[in-house]
Each structure stands twice: as C-alpha cells, then as structure tokens.
Design goal:
alpha/beta; nine-stranded mixed sheet; 15 strands
Length: 453
C-alpha cells in the first residue's frame, strides 16, 4: 500500500490491473487434452481441517478444480483429503509450490493467522491468484507487504469476510448515500465472540506431539513453544469453550486467543462486521484508536473489550466514531424497548439509525423506501474471486479492501495490548505518539522464516 496512493487510486488501480490481466491456466500450456483457457482453474488448498473444508467447497462450487491439498495435521484434515481423493497431498506448502508450480493457478489459505503472510507472499510472487481467510495477516507490516505484492503481481485476490456486494450490503450503501438517516456520525459493531479461550496464561508442562502433526511447521514463523494438547481438567479456560468446539490449547481451533498465533475476537469477526460499513462510509485509515478491556494478559486477548476509533471527514461525510464490542458487550439500545441481537452493525445518523439495511424510525424508512437500486448485486466472495481470476472485475473484498479491514482490527488489538490512546498516521503506517506501540506493528520471525523469502 504505497504511501502516495489515495483510496480511490488504490482501488481503481487494482481494478484496472485485474481487468487487464488475461488468464491462461499454466497446465494449458502442456498441449492438447488439457483444460481449455478460461475454463476451470486449478486450485490448491492450504489449511484444510477447520473452516478450510466448507470454504474449499465454496471454491469448487464457484468453478475451481481442487488439484492439491496441504495441511500439517493428517487427522484434522482427513475429511478434506477424503472429499477430494484425487488431489495431490502435501504437508509443507513450500514443497507443494515447488512441485506443482506449473499445475496451480490459484491458492486458498485457511491456516491460523500467524502463517498467512509467509504462505500467501510466495504464491503472489509466483503470480498465483489468492483467497485468504480474514484477517489476511496477523501484523500490519505483513498486511502492507501482502497488499503491495498483490498489486505488483496483478493477480486476483479476495479475503473471506462477509460480502460487501450482496443485497443487504448494497442496499445499506444506497440508503446511507441517499441520506436515509442523515449524516452518519457513529458506527457501532458488536460480536458474541470469543467462542474459544482468552484471558488466560499458558498451561504448564509439555505433551508429546502426535506423529500425524508437524508442530514445527504449524508454529511456522512464530516463536517456538512446547506443544500442549488439551487444557487440564478444571482449568478456567474450559468454561469458555463452546461444547461443539475442541478443548485444545492451541490446535485445533483455539489458536485465535493467543497473540502469537491469532488476533482475538476483534480479528476473527471485525473484518466481517466492518466490510460493508467501510464501503458505505468510505473509510480508509482512522486517526486514533483506544480501548477498554478486562484484565490484559501478556500472551492472550482479553475476555471482553470495547475499542473506539476516530475517523476524519471523508468526501461528503462528517468525522465518524466507530466503536467495537466483544465478549458479550453491546452498545446501548438506540430506542426504548429496541432489542439488539448477539452481533450486528448499527449506524447512527442525525435523522435516525440503521441496523444493517433496516432504517429507523418508521417514517424515515417510508420516506426512503423508493431509493433506486443503483449498485450491482454480486454473488459473494468465492464466485467474485473466480470471475476475477478469469479477467473480470475484482472481488469486492480484494486485497486493497481486505488490507484496510485487516489494519482496522490489528490497530484495535494494539490499543488493547497497550491500554493507551494511540494516534495513527495511516500514510506513514506509524503511531505518532507511542514508540512502544510501533514495536507491535510486526514481530521478528524465528530463524528460517522471512517476509522476503
């Protein structure tokens, strides 16, 4: 994300690059009998045991052909391996890239947050199209590197955050731009996460690593730590885990609460909730961020937090305050007797409020019921990504957009970790009032891993 690019230039330039890029799958170059150009695209999946399984199914429904699968855990990934038995299997994504380079057009990355950048960057440098689960990276330095590399490569990208182009998202934009609730000065976002342990210390001891798991590869660029299988009986962390999820300490699933591996409730759900508001309210970088939370722990996200962002005036829109809530916390109800669900997005304007695309009070809704539907409704991230890979319009959440969402959640996490009000220079990518906070923009990788590899 170049320091000299405006939001309009950033998004417009990426669209132009995507439109100009003509896709010819590499395996087509092998001669007759291969898939025709612009037909199915060969996709490799990395990180398959959790959300990767249903999201790879979405990719297949969109039109991709699953030709390779990679995961460090043979047991956790079994259902995915069984679903696509003809796909080549790998444990190390680097080996897959080396041996399948001329047979892969695109990659899907569904691994824990801390390994996204080191997996995605070499794929982009090889000019592979990329879909990555949100947030696209664990640190802001990683995010800017990934976005710029994607723009340089001219490939099609998307994250997996909630669509900003479907009916609900598009209608939200149309109503706000038409002035249905007047100038919007506050945005409230809330989530019922976490569903995994947070606010805890590391359990003592070490367990044997199963032969079916490559713990060293799972750790990837993070600092090495002993493997611990499950939480001890009676541990408070077990009370936080939904019954349908695993009682693991780190893997599977429970990486999210650890700062070394995940990005907490805000990182998990913030990109979903902020995607449409970023489009509707024309947001880029906040000028400041601050937080309140339950007790801060050295290694994990807190049990609950409230994060406040201040955004400057944009185009025809006034300054905006954005407040994030998690851990069961919610904003104040906007009207007596008006219930708020477990998660949502609420826009507060001078003339009313909106919960998603629904306008309140009723007289405002009636007044703006006939606002024209001017935006194109699109089919969602996976199909949009497939179409972009074939030379069409970029996906709504292509990496220049996903990078802004990623920075949004990561800035909030730094505010949580420092407990300070931080002033942010989005152009320079630095905090202007706290040098210690700048140290959290990236963590040093352990030996053998690099952003430039």
């Amino acid at each position: 994300m170049s320091q000299n690019l405006t939001r309009r230039q950033l998004l417009g330039g990426a669209m132009a690059a995507g439109a100009a890029f003509t896709i010819v799958p590499r395996h087509v170059l092998g001669g007759a009998g291969h898939t025709a150009p612009n037909d199915k695209l060969a996709l490799a999946g990395i990180g398959l045991g959790g959300i990767g399984f249903p999201q790879l199914q979405e990719c297949e429904r969109a039109g991709f052909e699953i030709v390779a699968l990679c995961d460090v855990d043979q047991v956790y990934a079994k259902r995915t391996f069984d679903r696509w038995p003809d796909a080549k299997r790998f444990r190390d994504f680097r080996e897959m890239y080396d041996t399948m380079d001329d047979r892969i057009d695109a990659i899907y990355c569904g691994t824990p947050d801390h390994s996204h950048a080191v997996i995605v960057l070499p794929a982009l440098r090889k000019k592979k199209h990329v879909c990555c689960v949100k947030p696209i990276t664990r640190t802001i330095v990683e995010s800017r590197k990934v976005v710029q590399t994607a723009l340089d490569a001219g490939v099609a990208t998307t994250d997996t955050s909630a669509s900003n182009t479907n009916e609900a998202a598009s209608r939200t934009c149309e109503l706000i731009w038409a002035g249905a609730i007047g100038p919007v000065r506050e945005l409230h976002l809330w989530s019922d996460r976490p569903w995994w342990p947070q606010g805890m210390t590391r359990p003592a001891g070490e367990d044997a690593v199963p032969e079916t798991l490559d713990w060293d590869l799972w750790i990837g660029p993070a600092a090495m730590r002993p493997f611990k299988s499950v939480w001890p009986d009676g541990h408070l962390a077990l009370e936080q885990i939904e019954r349908r999820f695993h009682s693991a300490v780190y893997h599977p699933w429970n990486f999210r609460g650890w700062w070394d591996f995940g990005t907490g409730a805000l990182g998990d759900m913030g990109c979903h909730h902020a995607n449409t508001p970023f489009r509707a309210l024309k947001l880029t970088h906040p000028t400041s961020v601050s937080s309140m939370s339950t007790k801060s722990m050295a290694e994990t996200a807190p049990l609950a937090s409230i994060v406040t962002y201040e955004f400057p005036a944009r185009e025809d829109m006034p300054p905006l305050r954005v407040v994030w809530y998690d851990g069961g916390l919610k904003p104040q109800s906007p009207a007596p007797g008006f219930p708020l669900g477990g998660s949502g997005e609420m826009y507060i304007g001078d003339e009313g409020f909106m919960i998603g695309p629904r306008v309140y009070p009723e007289q405002q809704a009636k007044k703006f019921a006939d606002v024209p539907r001017t935006l194109t409704r699109r089919p969602g991230n996976y199909r949009e990504w497939f179409e972009a890979c074939r030379g069409g319009e970029p996906a709504g959440s292509h990496f220049p957009v996903a990078g802004l969402l990623t920075e949004f959640v990561l800035l909030g996490n730094i505010a949580i970790r420092t407990g300070k009000r931080l002033d942010w220079d989005g152009t320079a990518g630095r905090f202007t009032n706290d040098d210690a906070a700048n140290q959290l923009l990236h963590d040093e990788y352990r030996e053998g891993w690099s952003l430039d590899a």
